[in-house]
Every structure is written in structure tokens, then in C-alpha cells.
Specification:
This protein has about 850 residues and is an alpha/beta fold. It has 23 helices and 39 strands.
Amino acid sequence: MTGHTSTPENLRRIVVAGGGPAAHRFADAMHTRGLEGWHVTVLAEEDHVPYDRVTLSKALTDVDYDLSLGDMSMWEHEALDLRTGERVVKINPEAKSVETAAGNTYGFDHLVVATGSDAARLPFPGGELAHVYRTLDDVWAINNAIAELRETLGRTVRTVTIGGGLLGLEAAAGTMELGAQATVINGSRWLMNAQLDEGAGQALGRLVAAKGLEVLTGTYPAEVLSDDDGRVTGVLMKDGRIIPADMVIASIGIRPRDELFRAGDNADGAGQLFELGKKGGVVINDHCATPVPGVWAIGEVANFEGMCLGLVAPANTMAEIVADRLHGGQATFPGFDTATKLKLSGVDVASFGDAFATTEHSLEIVYADPARGVYQKIVTTDDAKTLLGAIFVGDATPYMSLRPLLGRELPAEPGAYLTAAGGGDAPDTELPDDAILCSCNNVAAGSVRDAINGCGSCDGNAPVQELGELKTCTRAGTQCGSCVPMLKKLLEGELKKSGIEVSKALCEHFSLSRQELFDAIRVLELTSFEDILAKYGTGAGCDICKPTIASILASQNSEYVLGAGRGTLQDTNDRALANMQKDGTYSVVPRIAGGEITPKGLGVIAAVAEKYGLYTKITGGQRIDMFGARLEQLPEIWKELVDAGFESGQAYGKSLRTVKSCVGSTWCRFGVQDSVAMAINLELRYRGLRSPHKLKMGVSGCARECAEARGKDVGVIATDKGWNLYVGGNGGFLPAHAQLLAQDLDDDTLITYIDRYLMYYIRTADRLQRTARWQEELDGGLKHIEDVIIHDSLGIANELEAAMARHIENYQDEWAETLKDPERLRRFRSFVNAPDQKDEAIAFVPERGQIRPATNEEKGGVLIASTIPVRGQD
């Protein structure tokens, strides 16, 4: 196609220069408002249909992940014309046309420029060797490069990301998930310095370091180093240090793609008609128009009040405003919403509003716990009533409750929202109808309520009762996704008010709840993920439903957890049957039931630890952990342990971890029952029992409670008449004391009640729900549990006991089973393409007579990164 393109007569022609999220949102807004009398041509520079840049990190780790925006059927409308691979290179304002790099000309009545931005390049020698993290092709290139480097080098790839903002952290985390060792360099003294103050930034640094991501702050790079073949070898810092690297990723900011508005790019002087901001971008007014009639600008290329921002919410708002104006509306742009939430697995970070407390006389209410990497700050007016902004790191649970209340009077004292301080959950706030629930798409709580209650929803007046349908209808939660928890909460609240049963779908692939899925699998005796997905699910599954179903199958069948294709459903720890540590090594944790071990057993552990050079530590669960094992060493180590009579302690699994005990009546002059014997009995009975979350138990031989039983999921405390049974205790982030379920029980009755309790929990709890939270959310709480477990109010006691009996009968040690099968042992290799090669980047230093992982400085700037969040050993 060359020359001028034609448009049906009598139609007003709109040309959109750009094919990113802002362009898509404009086309969608025009489509929603009605295209009668209009024809919209979208000229996308990339070869892809418009896609979601917010979730670009998903495509980095999964090149097949579909990021396409919206319903593709929209582009089938006769008045919408999407043309990919067409880059606009020139605007002719007088002729009202644009020209593309392909030599085509498109006439317009209105031009909407949505060219977005480019990733800034490194401004020092070697900068051209760095990858950038901006487009789909960029992340695919990073993915392919890591795979090629791993194949070529025969070892773990080392990546260095320059820039510690949102995109930099997401890029580094993505390379870690691909198996690389990742380092982030940030010139500021703390990460995300544009969104977080120093306290929050330092807390974030501790959190990401705990995930295995090495962070260098307050220092600047000077050059990307390479060898004679042009391969990256490292980054030279201004202080003279060299950070070894095989790949460098630049994430130092963005530059508006405003070349269409610059005089030098328009021979007829069109560039002189437009005003550019000091830092780039074409200046627009509050209805997104440039000084040239009929030419609009939206998204990152638009400069409003001196600012260009790469955030999805203002881009969407601008797109809606232009569509409204073209339809005769009077909408105006209110300014930039800078709310930010980091999408990094296991790291909770959010900020919004006046996070730096720049408002005169503003107050900062802060809770900080450096040891835990937790920082929470709420900024209010000087009377502590009106919310001005907030920052959350390590625990961002209040974010969704507070974000819609920005600029409003808080319904409770500000300190009540500092959940990390131990005051419980944030106040349950009823959002006003005009509060913005979804800032990305500017959706108010009232609009969501209208859709739920059938008042002007997308399907006539029919009410919306499913989360997916609600997202489609209102657009809330369809982009960055951070508002989805609040959206779900509002949906459930409104449905309950209407007396409608609330959906508890496990995930987008399964409409059943975990409990419903558990029962369905049990009744139909399904044994494979494929069969379960075919019968009850859609799609290919996700990281929510896959491990959940793996756990359900394991708890029902007590079969080898990695057998029959179930290994692909598990996370890294379960696949390795060991906990990965921060330096890429693994821990070895044999079971020591009740904390009781013979001198001979101690000798075996000592010999193994000494032979393989492992660090040893006695844990709070009364067993011995050995740290520093390489992946390929795990089978050798476990063979020696299994041959000596040890078995897996399952420190890696969502299962029973330990049963802690005091010495009890056998030795202690205060003991009234044999707590050691009972603890060993319980641990051997429930070992290997897979559950929604990890389980811990404790048995104390008297009321002095030396085993801390009331801090456990199941706690047993001796009395002179028998045993008291406590349930629902948890340590962790939100500690909870166990509650007394029954008193003065004999041995058999105690075990019967524990059998019933654990099986009832396994059948009815949500995924990753600890016993404390499960009990709190059950209707009737502890009284309900008492009725079911003691009084058999549901008539399922015999069934629960039988299920536990099957587990006990079918128990098998996972490591013993693994060692029997050479095929299963193939997964224990550091490098698939070099099975005999060791990862030489792992390094230790001596400390207090043992080893510990070397720090970045001790290894010359390299840290072995974990590919998954590190979980507690016990």
C-alpha cells in the first residue's frame, strides 16, 4: 500500500499514532461511546497488537504469556482499523495528514498522538551493549540471551540491572526467576527513591536482599566492560570496583517519544507549532489538546503541568478524556495519580499521594521494624484526620483500604491502619460511592456497586455476581491488578447484603473453592492434574491452582509427591525436596521426632556435615539443619542419612514440620505426663501429611509449658488427669495463641480429636491458610470446631478418622523413594547441559568454626540468587 489511504465518505477520520496501552484505551473508549460517524485508524509501530506493559515481567519469564489487551473482537468493528508495523514519522498539520516509515499517508480530521516513550540508554562507554526493559521484544530478547549464555558458559548467568526503580526491580527479579544471579545498581542511597522515603527504601532493600537479589546503592557505574568478541564481562564502577556480569540491563528512566513535534523532523516547520516541555513531551491543556486544532496527545508523550509520567492510570484517563471531548463532552484532566505498587513475588510495596509529606504542617505516623524489613507510614493533615498519602513496605495490606480515601477524612485513627504494629487488621472501611477504587481505569466504588446490583451494568440491568464478569463490566482490576482484592471484597460485601452466596473460586482456571475441589477429587477419586483440569477447570492452570491441586492429591493419596507428572506442579523447594537458601545452596533437614536422638544418630549427622562441609544449626523445632549443600550433592547426602535410618523432615513442604517437646515426666521432677513419648507418637503419626499450610505441634509435660505448645497449630499440655488439647496457634507474621478445645483427655481420645481436627482443616481451609486464620473465618469459630470434632455435629467423624488412617498406612519417605529411582535423581543437577559440572560461583567463608555464604564484597561483587522466596526451615 502506497500513497494516500482512503476512508469511507462522510465519516470523521481519527488517526492514532502509536499502538500501546494508551492507544488501545482510546480506541476502546471510542468503541464504548459509539463509532457512528467515525472511523479510527490505529498505527502501531510494533508488530504486535496492543499489549499490557504493566505485566511485562510475565512475558520475561514465560515467552508464551499472552499480554494482549482487551477483547480482540473489538478490532473486527468496521470503523476500527488496526495496522501493526506502521510507524508514523511525520505530521503535516496544514494538510491534516501523517506519513509512515513505510511511505504511506493517512489523512485525518483528528490526530491522537500516543507514541509513548523510549527506555533511556546508558550514557557511558559500553552502554550500547546493555539490554533495555521496555517492550515485548525487549523482554523476549533478555529471555533468549539468558538461555544462550547459560548454554554457552555452562554455568549460572550473572546479570546486572542498572536502575533500582519499579522496572529495574521487576527486570532483576525476572532474571532471577530464569535462574540468573542478579545484582541491582542504584545511584540513590535506597531503592525506588522516586516513590519511597529513605526508611521505606532501606526496608525494601532488606526484603529483596533476603530473596537473593544483591543491591548496590549510593554508587554509580562508569562503563560496561566487554571482551574482544563484544561479550559483556562486567560493570566498572566510578569507585574502581568491577562487578562481574554476563548481561547488563538498563532501567534508568524513560524519554518521551516526542520527535513528531520537533521542528527538525518536519520540513514544513510543523514542529514550531507545538510547545515542548523542558524535559520533553508535547505540552497539552486540561482536555489533552495541543495548540494545533485537531491534534491531541495522551500517555507518556503528553506533558501536563511540566510532567510526563510512565504510569497507566493517567494514560487511561487522558484517553477517556479525548474520547469524551470528541463526543461532545466536557471532561478535564485532573492531574497525575502517582500511586505505585511493586509487582515482585514475596515483596509487598506500595505508595500513593503525598508520600514524602511535602504538604505544609502535614503529620507522618510511622511504624518501622528494620529487623523484619517492615515500614509503614501514613501522612495526614496536622489534625490527623485527612489522609494525604502513605507508604507501605513489607506489609501493604492497608493500601487498598486507604488508597480510595486519599483526600478524605479517615474513619478511624491513623495508627489503626498501621497493621504491622500488631494492632490487628485495618478497620473495615465502607468506601463512599465517589471514592476511586481502580485508579488505572478511574472506576469509582459506586460504579462497581451499580454493576453488582444491576443498575446500569453492561448487560442491561442484570446484576453482576462473578469477579471476572465484574472486571469485564467495569474495567476495574483489568490492568495492574492491585485493586482486585478490594474489588473482590466489595463484590462479596454487596452480594451478602443481597442474600446472595459469594463465589469462592480458587483462581481464574477453577470456579470451585479449594474445599469444593478437594471434595470433588476425593469423591471421584481423580489422581492427575490433567483429569481434574479437564473436568472442572479451563486453560492450562497457574501458580495458584497447580501447587494447590498437587497438595490435595498428596494429602488424599499419600503417594510420591513428584510422581505421575506431579513434579511440574510443585514449587522449587518441593521439586528439590529441600529448601533453597539465599546463595543457591540447599538445606538438609532429617526428621528428629520429638527432638529425641541417640548419640549414634548425632554421630551420623556430624559425620555427614563434616564430610560435605555443611553448616549445622539446632532449630527451634528441636532438630538439626545442615546448610550449604549443592543440588547435585543432595542425593549423596540423603543416601548416607537414609542408610543410617533417618528420613526427610519435610522442612520444604506444606506439611507437618516438627512436634516439639519438653523432657517430660521421664526425667523432669515437675513433669506429670511422658511428653517425649507423646511427641514422638504424634510426629510419626502425622509425618508426611500434606496440608494447606505448614503444621507445627508441641507437647508440654506440665503447665510450665516449656515446649511452647500454645504457639503451635496443635498444642498438647499435660495435666495430672491426662492432656489438654489446644488448637489454632501460629507464630509467624501474625502470631496467635492456640485455643483450648478439650481438657483432661486420655491418650486415645487425644489422638482421635487431633486426627479429626487436622483432616477437617485439610478439607475445608483455603490455600495457604494457617489454622489460626481458618478458625477465625469459620462460622462459629472454635464452637463450630468443638461441635464437629467432639460432638460430630456433621456426622463425618468416622470419615475423617478413616482418611487419617489411610494416610498413616500409605506413608512413605520421599527421599527414600527418590533414591530408589535413577530417573528421579536426574533432576538433581546444577546444569542440565553439563550434568557433572558444579556451580563454581557458590562460595563460603569461615565464621565461628563453620561456613557461611560469602557476601558480595567477599566474592568480588557476585551473589548467588535464589529463584524463589526463601521460606522458614522449621
